Each structure stands twice: as structure tokens, then as C-alpha cells.
Amino acid sequence: MKPRNADLLMMLVTMSWGSSYLFMKNGLDSVSPFNLVALRFGLAFVLCAAIWLKRLRSTDKITLMYSFILGFLLFAVSASVIFGLGSTSTSNAGFLASLTVIFVPALSAIVLKQKPEAKLIVGACSALIGIGLLTISGPMSVKAGDLLCILAAMLYAAHILVTGAAAKTADTLNLGILQLGFAGGFGLSFSFMFEHPRLPESTGGWVSILMLSVVCSAIGYIVQSIAQKYTTPAHTGLVFSMEPVFAAIFAYLFANELLPLRGYVGAALILLGVLMAEMKRKSAAPGGIGYGKGEGVS
């Protein structure tokens, strides 16, 4: 698979996650936070496991180990965002959670000693400014919810980096499926400890849970695991910065929410940042953040 095609798949994944805010909001009207995490990832795992059961039986230890780590990170990211929304505004949460676009190249440079290309840094900065214009609607103050959303961004940056490392040695399809099972398992365990787990009682609640499970989780995370083998963590983080843009589009289409002028300017800056990263890439040494045309990182 060519890197550009992998990034295109990542864009489709990002689009599905942009729709998740609407479904998550509706889902929380029916079940509690940890319960929502358990249902979202648990049902996604059951669906995928039923389809690829024979292949899952041949899972090796490396894939299982990476799946456990990614499942925990996935659970922690989802829980942090959900609880963060309890004490901060939606606009602040959207901006802070999207800081992944900055944390990925930063962590790559610190942990993996990989220096990003200059255009990638400029593109990330453009996307960051765009996210701020798109999502921040008022004065920003630091609250517990803000810190939780920043934590979610850092955890998801770590998830992207671990996925990139795992994709080089693990079975990417099994990796994508099993991490859903572990995330759902963590959600169910915490729900039993701190909540009273139950199933949605309304049709709207079930629709939200199923959309989160099938579209946003089963399809989204499996495609990410497979496609990320052919692109880089830094490019993945930058493409994911389009999530608030898609969230705004879905909010307009299905909730009649309009953006102010600065919001559209922000969306344009995010798109510009992604397009800058998609310009012809320079070759780099194996394992580096830059890579040549048609050349993966594995």
C-alpha cells in the first residue's frame, strides 16, 4: 500500500471519529461513562471476533502483548475524555484532546530520537492554530477537566506510537481486533467497581452505542492498525487533527450547529496543515519520520 493511500484510509477513520461526539453525547444519556466504554469496545470486539475467529486462534505472543498495551491506552483515552467533559467546556475539550497532533512528533523526537521534517512541524503548527480557532469559544482556564483532556491527548499520542511499532512485527488485523477486547474488558471492570453496568433502554441509546461500536471502533481502529504500517506516527497524528473539522460538519448536518467565521478559518488552517504534510516527501533513513514516495516505514 502506498503511503498516500494509507493516509487516505486514516482520513476516513478520522471522519468516523468526528461523528462519534454526537453518538457519545446521546449514549451518555442512557448509560454511565465506564459502561459506555465497555459497550462501545466490547460489542465491537464481539462483532470482529465472530468474523475473524479462525484467524484470532493463531494470535502470537507479540501481537497479544501489544494488543493488551493498546487496549489499556484506548480505554484510558476514552475514559479521560468522557470524565474531562464533566468539568470543562466542549470547545476546550475538543482543542485539548486534539493536541495529539503536537504530542506525536514531540514524543517521536524525545523517545524514538526521530527528527521530523520542517514542513511537518509547520503543518502541525498550522493545524494546532486551526484547532484553536475552530474549537475555543471563550477564555480558557485550567480545570481538572482540561488536565484530563490533555492527558487523553498524550495517551493517544502514545497509542499512535505504539501502534506504529507494533505494526512492524505484529499481525495488524488481530492487533486491531484484540485491542478492542482489552479496552472493553477494562471498561467493564471499572464499571463493575464504580458503577452499575446496564444496557441502554431506549432505541436512540442503542443506535448511538451500535454506531460507536461498529463504525467508530470496529472499523476505525482495525483500519488504523492496518494502514499505519504504511505511514508514520507523525503523519497519522496530523491527519487525526482533522477530527474536530469533521465533528463540526456532522454537528451542522445533524444538530444544526453553525460555525462562526473564525471556525471556518480554523478548519481551513487544519486542512492546510494536512496538505503540507502530504506534499512530496523526502527520503529518510529507515525508521525516520520522513520517507520517500511509495515507501513505508516497516
From TrEMBL:
It comes from the Bacteria. Its main location: membrane. Residues 6-135, 144-276 form the EamA domain. It holds the Pfam family EamA. The chain crosses the membrane at residues 36-53, 65-87, 93-112, 119-138, 144-166, 173-194, 206-223, 235-255, 261-277. Keywords: Cell membrane, Membrane, Transmembrane, Transmembrane helix. It is found in: Cell membrane. Belongs to the EamA transporter family. This is DMT family transporter. It comes from Paenibacillus sophorae.
